């Protein structure tokens, strides 16, 4: 049906196109890795602050399941402490915020590929993150607390001896748990923690008695306990975990943007606007 | 009950995203799958090798990884798609690979005599394929095709990784906001409803195709 000559010609052409494509992708990757190594994990070297000032719009990435920092009300509208704060901060500069929901594990990639201009969503400062992003000044402090059922009578971290502990996988509480074994790890059963992807599932297990304690960020702990049918059934225990500092994450090259946000945050702290927003979301 | 009614609008907004990905994937992957399955029978070994490599990669890696590569990975070499388009592209090329194998199975079940008979009757290559072979192949593959379609309904939930808000994410948001598992129950029911509709539609088409038997 197909002659041998035709076979050879078509095979050659297809093979050539195929290798040309692979070569093109390889060159693209190579150039990109050169760029990446040159400017320290960021793809853009220019300060994007000028573009943001000109277009009067900034894209901020958030995990819209992150209660009470940034989440959605029943009508799907974005609300929360960080949403209010960021909107207010940029409003003073005449810039509107475009909120982009992202997957939390992809946040640094989203930032450094330029899909978003900032991460502003209860973003705790850690050494590993500081290698990839530039943080603003700390605007919020929170520590890790232990939530337990009142009837189990756990009032100190030492009371967790041989009890089962739960937390959120890859949260800063999870990091602190392994980093400071003396604080809590040495007491709990098998020196292990049960990891959940979201806290609502962990709370469910706490109520069901499958875990005895839940290691959780102070802000979330208060929000979740307040939203349980019987808030009085729970005990929140503050222990010796170091305080987590929350900041806004920017690209390392965006110095202008970072300075502007720092300045506005300082002004908000000084004139009480910060307190106002805090009271709205973290009322105890 | 009241509560479920309250969160239903946000879930339905997520449902729109789910259905968008679902329908565009079906529309894109069926023709691509047919082309790929024909390519596997190509007389040119280079085309066969490339297609086999493509199917190996698509079926051999998790769809979640493919989504990450299409959106973030291609973005790194300068090919940037918007989020929704990236999701649809990843789903189409993934599902086309699975569908191609199903079509290939259907094509191989056609007896040689069908082609010979068509040739004797004076059909050309295209007529033979579209008028004789394809209608019979479709009939054979409906059950296994249905499997993939139902899988697709559920796989659409993976789009969360590139920040798209589908129905499962909407359920996640409601669950973490209101500290209850009820939204998941409602999400589950909506998925069941979708797969029920797909199942009924496939049964119907199977019956209608059976008129040739």
From TrEMBL, chain A:
It holds the Pfam family SBP_bac_3. PANTHER family: ABC TRANSPORTER EXTRACELLULAR-BINDING PROTEIN YCKB-RELATED (PTHR35936:SF34), MEMBRANE-BOUND LYTIC MUREIN TRANSGLYCOSYLASE F (PTHR35936). InterPro entries: Solute-binding_3/MltF_N. It comes from the Bacteria. Residues 57-284 form the Solute-binding protein family 3/N-terminal domain. This is Polar amino acid ABC transporter substrate-binding protein. The keyword Transmembrane applies. The chain crosses the membrane at residues 9-29. Keywords: Membrane, Signal, Transmembrane, Transmembrane helix.
UniProtKB/TrEMBL annotation, chain B:
One of its GO terms (molecular function) is transmembrane transporter activity. The chain crosses the membrane at residues 20-40, 61-81, 87-107, 128-146, 181-202. The keyword Hydrolase does not apply. It comes from the Bacteria. GO terms for biological process: amino acid transport. Residues 15-202 form the ABC transmembrane type-1 domain. PROSITE patterns: ABC_TM1. One of its GO terms (cellular component) is ATP-binding cassette (ABC) transporter complex. It holds the Pfam family BPD_transp_1. This is Glutamine ABC transporter permease.
């Amino acid at each position: 049906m197909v002659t041998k000559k035709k076979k050879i010609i078509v095979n050659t052409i297809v093979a050539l196109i195929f290798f040309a494509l692979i070569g093109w992708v390889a060159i693209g990757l190579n150039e990109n890795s050169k760029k990446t190594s040159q400017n320290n994990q960021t793809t853009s070297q220019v300060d994007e602050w000028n573009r943001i000032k000109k277009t009067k719009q900034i894209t901020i990435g958030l995990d819209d399941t992150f209660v009470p920092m940034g989440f959605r009300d029943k009508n799907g509208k974005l609300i929360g402490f960080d949403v209010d704060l960021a909107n207010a901060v940029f409003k003073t500069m005449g810039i509107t915020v475009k909120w982009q929901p992202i997957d939390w594990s992809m946040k640094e990639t989203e930032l450094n590929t330029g899909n978003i201009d900032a991460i502003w969503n209860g973003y705790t400062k850690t050494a590993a993150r500081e290698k990839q992003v530039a943080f603003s000044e700390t605007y919020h402090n929170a520590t890790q607390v232990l939530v337990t059922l009142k009837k189990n009578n756990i009032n100190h971290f030492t009371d967790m001896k041989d009890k089962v502990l739960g937390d959120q996988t890859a949260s800063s509480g999870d990091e602190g748990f392994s980093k400071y074994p003396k604080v809590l790890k040495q007491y709990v059963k098998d020196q292990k923690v049960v990891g959940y992807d979201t806290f609502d599932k962990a709370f469910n297990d706490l109520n069901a008695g499958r875990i005895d304690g839940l290691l959780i960020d102070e802000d979330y702990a208060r929000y979740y306990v307040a939203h349980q049918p019987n808030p009085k059934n729970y005990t929140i225990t503050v222990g010796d975990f170091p305080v987590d500092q929350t900041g806004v994450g920017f690209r390392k090259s965006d110095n202008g943007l970072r300075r502007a946000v720092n300045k506005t945050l300082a002004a908000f702290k000084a004139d009480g606007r910060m307190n106002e927003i805090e009271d709205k979301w973290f009322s105890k | 009950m009241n509560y479920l009614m309250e969160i239903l609008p946000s879930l339905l907004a997520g449902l729109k995203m789910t259905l968008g990905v679902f329908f565009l994937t079906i529309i894109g992957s069926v023709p691509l799958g047919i082309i790929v399955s024909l390519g596997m029978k190509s007389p040119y070994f280079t085309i066969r090798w490339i297609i086999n490599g493509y199917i190996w990669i698509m079926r051999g890696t998790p769809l979640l990884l493919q989504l990450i590569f299409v959106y973030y990975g291609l973005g790194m070499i300068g090919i940037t798609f918007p989020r929704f388009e990236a999701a649809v592209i990843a789903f189409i090329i993934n599902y086309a690979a699975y569908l191609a194998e199903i079509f290939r199975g259907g094509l191989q079940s056609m007896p040689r005599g069908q082609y010979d008979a068509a040739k004797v009757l004076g059909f050309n290559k295209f007529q033979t394929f579209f008028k004789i072979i394809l209608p019979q192949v479709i009939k054979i593959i409906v059950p296994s095709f249905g499997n993939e379609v139902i899988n697709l309904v559920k796989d659409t939930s993976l789009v969360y990784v590139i920040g798209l808000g589908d129905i499962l994410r909407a359920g996640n948001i409601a669950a973490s906001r209101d500290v209850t598992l009820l939204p998941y129950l409602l999400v589950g029911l909506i998925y069941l409803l979708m797969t029920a509709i797909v199942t009924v539609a496939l049964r119907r088409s199977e019956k209608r195709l059976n008129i040739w038997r």
